[in-house]
Amino acid sequence: MQHHGTVTGHDTSAAAFEGLGNESRRRLNERLCETLRAAHQQGVRDMSRRELRDFHNQQTGEWLELSSVASTVNALLAAGRLEEGAARACSLSPRKNLVKPVRCKAKQAALV
Fold it and tell me: Would strands 98-99 and 88-89 be described as parallel, antiparallel, or unpaired?
């Protein structure tokens, strides 16, 4: 009898994200960074991945899967373009789960 491993939603989401071409990933990175910058300009300090997804949808009309937003945010964190804020409850989570929200990294002042 052959054993088949269980495939989770996480596995298929990661595979779908990996299936995106470099140019598609780059564009998604830029769109989400622009959305987060727009939120900052409106006084929002940081956002959970779910809050970012919903704000992006409100601003652009583009619906993104939460797994795509999470994968993109994780890549932007690894690249040093975003940073995590202090843990807090997600405003959109029905269970008010603690999350580590993200924000754009503060730009360093130019040296004179």
Answer: antiparallel
